[in-house]
Amino acid sequence: MNGPRSNGVNGQSHASPKVNGHANGTAASRDHQDTQGSSENESPSTPSRMPRPVHGRKESNPLAPPFIVSAPGKTIVYGEHAVVHGKAAIAAAISLRSYLLCTTLSKSKRTLSLRFPDIGLDHTWHIPDLPWAAFKHPSRRKKYYDLVTSLDQELVDAMQPHIATVSPKAKEQVQQRHQQAASAFLYLFMSLGSESSSSCTYALRSTVPVGVGLGSSASICVCISTALLLQCRALAGPHPDQMSKEAEDQLERINRWAFVGELLIHGNPSGVDNTVATNGHAVLFQRHDYRKPPAVEILRNFPELPLLLIDTCQAKSTAAEVAKVGNLKAAHPAVTGYVFDAIDSITRSAHDIVTGDDPGSEESIAHLGELMSVNHGLLIGLGVSHPRLERLRYLVNESGVGWTKLTGAGGGGCAITLLKPSQPSPSSTHTNGDGTHRSALQELERQLKSEGFAKYETTLGGDGVGVLYPAVINGKEIDQDMFLDVEGREGVEELVGGKRDRDAWTYWRP
Ligand SMILES: Nc1ncnc2c1ncn2[C@@H]1O[C@H](COP(=O)(O)OP(=O)(O)OP(=O)(O)O)[C@@H](O)[C@H]1O
Ligand SMILES: C[C@@](O)(CCO)CC(=O)[O-]
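# adenosine-5'-triphosphate complex -> structure
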C-alpha cells in the first residue's frame, strides 16, 4: 500500500500499516473499544489476528489516522414502489459515489462533528450530553450484529432534543434535509458507539445528486454504517485475500445498519437502495417479511446496458412518494395488488433476460426496453409520475432513440432511457432542418438541455462499499480542509484517487 505507515492505534506502533492483521485493516480504535467496557463490540473474526495493546499512558496515545469510506448511488431498473410492498426489484450501482472522511480528534475534545457541505450542514454535539442512558439501557441496547428492522420510538424521542438543535433557523425544507441526515447519523452513532467514543469529525462529499432518485441517502447511510462499525472494531478487513464468506458477512453487517439509517431518512424503505449501495454490481431484491432479511441475488454479470440517465431537475421527496403509494394501497388494496403483481412479473421477465445467454442481443434489448415502458405505465397508475417526467418521455419517444421509465421514487427526479441498439452513434450524422448535422441522439440531448433537463454520465455496476485506510493517495495524506475545499465531481474524484491509485482502496469482495 502506498503512503506513510500508520501509527496503529492506542499507542501501538505496528510494523506495517496493517491494523487487525489486515492490510488496509479496520480503522478501529482499540482505545474506543476498551472504553466500551464490553467485549460485545469485538468482531468474532478479529481478535486472534489483533495485536493486543499495551496500556500505556493515555496522553501519549497517537490518534488513529484519518480514513475514508465510500459507497455508490444506484438506479432502479425495474420494480420501484412495488418492492416496498414485497415484490421483486432490480437495481444497479452507478459510478457516482459518496465519500466520508473520518478524522479522530484528541480525546480531550469530546465532540462529534458533522461537516456535510453538499447540503450545507455543519453541526457539533458534545458527546457526554447525548442521551446515552436511553440508548445503553439493557432493554434497548443493540449489538453490532443485531438485525434491526424498525426504529425504537423511545430512542427516536430521546434523540429528538439533540436533533432539534440542528440548523434551527434554516428554511423548513433545508432544515428537514439537515435533520434527516443528522438523525440517521446520530441513531447509528448512539447504537454502535458509547459515551467514551473518540471525538471525531465526519466530513462528507458526494458526487451523487441529492434527492433525485439515485440513492443519495442510501449511499451516505452505507458510508456512515461502515465508518462507525470500523471504529467500534466490528468489521474484519477489507483485505484482498479475505475468505468469501467472511467478506459476505461484513457486507451483511454494514447493510443492516445502513438500513436503520434509511429508516430515519425515508420512513418506510424496502432496503433495496442500501443493499445495492453496499454490495455494488446489480441486485435482484425482494423483502417478503420485514422482520427477516430480504432475499438478495447479486447479479455480478449484469450487462453493460446502453443507458441515458436524465434528471428532470424537479425536486421530490422519496418519503412523500412512498407514502402516496401506501395511501393508494389502503384505499384500493385489490387494484394496487394487481399493479404490484404486474410490476413483479416485469422484473422477473427482465431478470430472465439479463441472466440469460445473450442479454446484449438486439432482441433482448428490445424486450428489456418494452418492459421498461410498461413498468413506467404502471408507475403512472400508482400516481408517482410528474409532468416533467412525461415531457421527457414524449421527447425521447419522438426521437425514437429508446425506451424510458422513471427511476427511484418518481414525483420528479430521474428517468432512465435504454438506447436502441440500432441507434446511430453520436458521430454518425444526418442533416436537420436547420442545416446542421446531428444524430437523433445528439438532437435529443440538445433539446433536453434547452428544456432544463440534466444528463449524468455514469456507468452501471462496479464495486460497493470501499475503504481507504489510511486516507493517503500516492503518498499524500488527504486532510479535512483539502477534502472540504476541493471543487466539483472531478475535483472530489481526483482527490480521493479512484483513478490515480486504484490499489489504495480496498473492497469486501465475496
Ligand atoms: N451528500 C449528502 N450530504 C448530506 N446528506 C445527504 C446527502 N445525500 C443525501 N443526503 C440525505 O438524504 C436525503 C435525501 O434522501 P432521499 O431518499 O429523499 O433522496 P435519494 O436517496 O437521493 O432518492 P431515492 O431514495 O429516490 O433514490 C437528504 O435530505 C439528506 O438528508
Ligand atoms: C420508491 C422506492 O421503491 C425506491 C427509492 O429509490 C422506495 C424503496 O424501495 O425504499
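# post-check
The chain has two domains: 30-51+63-297+462-507, 303-456.
The CA atoms of residues 136 and 191 lie 8 Å apart.
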